[in-house]
């Protein structure tokens, strides 16, 4: 694109800065807490109305057929489109508008949308209502600058990312609204500190192990088999054999923070014997269940990751008398990595250099986000996350986003759209 076009769009974002801030505050004031998924209709409408007022075609997609889409908590997604001279390239900006529950420790109104000392405060401002506002205004700045795109641009606001995104971005992918062949590039403005491009995430495997013992009188435990003791043997083997081996497995994918570049395993829950707090009777526990959260590396792969746990359980079974277990997969999310030569990476990289005067850092996320649906369900590998706000502030009390970062991220997104969609007569 020409320097003149670029400067006009950068200036247009500057002129819209107050509106971007106001719109971010407006979105924060809608308490879209998930779970359970409150005020989704109001928020989808607020985004849709804004996109419509900017002359975009707006559609609403309710997640029909999804069990979480209920009368009480409807799952509604919104998509705005500005068609270019040609349908493609088609650039899609996607933000989730659900936010996690407030939690303790706030010193101001989590849903006040307060602006103070160059920052906007509130639950979900950084993760990721500022990102949605940046996407909406990046597209609008191009229009205000009088620049016509060759290709088309879309902005979506979707639900439920914090609970897996199946009724949100997953649904748009399921119905083919975002799909390979139709959609050429996807940018997800999650909070990435304004100068980092997120090219994917590790894999996630949630699984459950149940050990089965043999009930007996608690005064004669030698007559029974304790499922809790057997789970203890499993946990001890994980702690002493498996976890130390993770330190030798470091992924080439640039996951941040650095400690998350390794395989990890967290024990989410352990339940065994009689429920705590109830009146107890003297019994040997015949059942113990533990839930595990294993984050695996692209280099490890899912099959080997799963087999390693099966082997570990079989090894315990070989040395602990009467050890019996069952294992169940709860959730499997494959790792994602954007190819190095993806055009979104190049476009955002040059836009970041142009706006901020520094080189973009490529990172990957320790956890997963809606990228997985774009990659796995929609089949689009030209996808990254990039947006305003500091990743570490997500889900924290007194969450905030700096106005400077918000405005600069809007500029970066606008320039990237120009690059990816192409400019008429430039
Ligand atoms: Zn998020």
Brief description of this entry?
This protein is an alpha/beta fold and 426 residues long. The protein folds into two domains: 3-201 and 335-421, Aminopeptidase (3-Layer(aba) Sandwich), CATH 3.40.630; 206-333, Alpha-Beta Plaits, CATH 3.30.70.360.
Beta fraction: 15-25%
| Uncertain runs | none
- Number of helices, counting only DSSP H or I runs of 4 residues or more: 10
The level 1 CATH classification of the largest domain is: Alpha Beta
Give the overall average pLDDT.
97
Q: Under the CATH scheme, which architecture of the largest domain would be assigned?
A: 3-Layer(aba) Sandwich
Largest sheet geometry: 6 strands, mixed
Task: Characterize the structure shown.
- There is one protein chain.
- The protein is of the alpha/beta class.
- It has helices spanning 3-15, 17-28, 40-53, 125-144, 169-174, 227-246, 302-319, 343-356, 371-377, 403-421, and strands at residues 57-62, 76-82, 90-96, 115-116, 119-121, 152-158, 185-188, 196-201, 203-212, 264-272, 287-296, 325-333, 336-337, 361-365, 383-385, 400-402.
- It has a six-stranded mixed β-sheet with strand order 1-2-6-3-7-15, sandwiched between helices.
- 46% of the residues are buried.
- The mean pLDDT is 97.
- The structure holds zinc ion.
- Zinc ion binds next to helix 4.
């Amino acid at each position: 694109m020409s320097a003149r076009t670029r400067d006009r769009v950068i200036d247009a974002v500057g002129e819209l800065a107050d509106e971007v801030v106001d719109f971010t505050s407006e979105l924060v004031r809608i308490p879209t807490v998930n779970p359970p998924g409150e005020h989704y209709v109001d928020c989808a409408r607020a985004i849709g109305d804004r996109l419509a007022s900017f002359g975009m075609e707006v559609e609403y997609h309710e997640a029909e057929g999804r069990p979480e889409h209920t009368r009480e908590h409807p799952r509604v997604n919104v998509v705005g489109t500005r068609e270019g001279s040609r349908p493609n390239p088609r650039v899609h900006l996607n933000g989730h508008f659900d936010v996690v529950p407030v939690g303790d420790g706030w010193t101001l109104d989590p849903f006040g949308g307060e602006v103070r000392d160059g920052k906007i405060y509130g639950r979900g401002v950084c993760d990721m209502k500022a990102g949605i506002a940046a996407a909406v205004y990046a597209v609008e700045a191009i229009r205000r600058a009088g620049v016509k795109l060759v290709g088309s641009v879309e902005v979506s606001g979707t639900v439920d990312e914090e609970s897996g995104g199946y009724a949100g971005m997953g649904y748009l992918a399921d119905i083919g609204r975002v799909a390979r062949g139709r959609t050429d590039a996807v940018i997800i403005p999650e909070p990435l500190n304004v100068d980092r491009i997120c090219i994917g995430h590790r894999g996630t495997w949630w699984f459950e192990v149940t050990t089965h013992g043999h009930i007996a009188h608690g005064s004669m435990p030698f007559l029974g088999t304790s499922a809790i003791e057997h789970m203890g043997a499993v946990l001890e083997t994980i702690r002493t054999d498996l976890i130390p081996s993770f330190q030798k497995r470091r992924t080439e994918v640039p996951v941040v923070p650095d400690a998350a570049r390794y395989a990890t395993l967290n024990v989410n829950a352990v339940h065994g014997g009689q429920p705590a707090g109830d009146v107890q009777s003297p019994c040997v526990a015949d059942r113990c269940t533990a839930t595990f959260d294993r984050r695996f590396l692209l280099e490890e792969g899912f099959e080997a990751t799963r087999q390693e746990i099966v082997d570990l359980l079989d090894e315990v079974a070989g040395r602990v008398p009467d050890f019996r277990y069952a294992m169940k997969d709860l959730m499997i999310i494959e790792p994602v990595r954007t190819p190095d030569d993806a055009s979104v990476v190049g476009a955002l990289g040059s836009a970041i250099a142009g706006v901020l005067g520094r080189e973009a850092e490529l990172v990957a996320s320790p956890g997963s986000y809606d990228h997985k649906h774009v990659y796995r369900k929609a089949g689009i590998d030209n996808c990254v996350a990039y947006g305003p706000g500091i990743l570490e502030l997500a889900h924290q009390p007194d969450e905030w986003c700096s106005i400077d970062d918000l405005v600069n991220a809007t500029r970066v997104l606008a320039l990237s759209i120009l690059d990816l969609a192409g400019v008429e007569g430039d």
